[in-house]
Design goal:
By secondary structure, the chain is of the alpha+beta class. 23% of the residues lie in helices and 28% in strands. Strands 1, 2, 3, 4, 5, 6, 7, 8, 9 and 10 form a ten-stranded mixed β-sheet that branches. Helix 4 packs across helix 6.
């Protein structure tokens, strides 16, 4: 038996999230079934971050014990040979026996993609929120900067967590939060249509926190609220002041950072 660290990428469209649940398809169950099929299962897997139904991952990290006496690259190949096409193991490496993908993470980075048009290619529509209406990216950048640092994110948590947790328990530290346009050739004749991405990195996230941040920033970018409204949300901690979260299918768990990584966070592109 040995502890390994896996890096997963998945399209979350067909799954009810990452965490195993009875009677519904999840990423954790799919991975553990694959480990069993190649006779490598050594116990329950631990994910770096929990993703909700419909949310995707480019760099989800998983720690687990495996029964495996061959090269670890063969473990990756073996898993990918039995996993469905919407789940891939990108990397597999040996880890310390006490390594935890969840508790040893220093930061997690999420990205959210939005298209300012409802007429999008179907493949893009699965991976981005398509909505009409131009956005003022300057205002959104100003609003994003107000989220940096340590705050109590009660207004940005799920309704249940916002009510159940104290302000100190709702506190998180955001290292990066920026909104930017992406290079796009899909809409050469559509004025105002384009693809935008929020990149946010923190020491931890609350349920629905990134999607609620996107919802708030879109309110600002649409001209419905001022950038100072973000400060009011942070101070008030009242989830009722913010509407529904942005749809899940635009969200990606992009990167998880650990001490000693050779590829420490440098603002990964993508």
């Amino acid at each position: 038996m040995q502890r390994v660290r896996l890096v997963l990428s998945y399209d979350g469209t067909a799954y009810r999230g990452s965490q195993i649940q009875p009677g519904v398809p999840t990423i954790q169950e799919t991975l553990e079934c694959a480990l069993g099929k190649i006779r490598a299962y050594g116990g329950r897997t631990t994910f770096a971050g929990r993703t909700d139904a419909g949310v995707h991952a480019f760099g989800q990290v998983v720690s687990c014990d495996v029964v495996w006496e061959r090269e670890l690259r063969r473990l990756s190949h073996g898993l990918n040979s039995v996993l469905p096409s919407d789940v891939r193991v990108l990397r597999c490496e040996a880890a310390d026996p006490d390594f935890s993908a969840r508790f040893d993470a220093l930061s997690r980075e999420y990205r959210y993609r939005l298209v300012t048009s409802r007429d999008v290619p179907p493949s893009l529509g699965r991976l981005a929120w398509a909505r009409e209406g131009e956005l003022d990216t300057g205002l959104m950048a100003e609003a994003s900067s107000k989220l940096l640092g340590t705050h109590s994110f009660g207004s940005f948590a799920s309704s249940g967590k916002s009510r159940a947790l104290s302000r100190s328990e709702l506190r998180r530290h955001l290292f990066d939060c920026d909104w930017r346009p992406l290079q796009c050739d899909f809409f050469p004749t559509r004025t105002g249509a384009g693809i935008y991405e929020l990149r946010v990195r923190a020491n931890g996230f609350l349920p629905q926190m990134v999607r609620n941040i996107v919802s708030a920033l879109v309110e600002v970018g649409s001209g419905n609220k001022s950038p100072e409204w973000i400060e009011y949300l942070l101070v008030s901690g009242d989830r009722r002041l913010l509407g529904p979260p942005a749809p899940p299918h635009g969200l990606f768990l992009w990167h998880v950072e650990y001490a000693g990584d050779s590829d420490t966070h440098t603002g990964n592109t993508g």
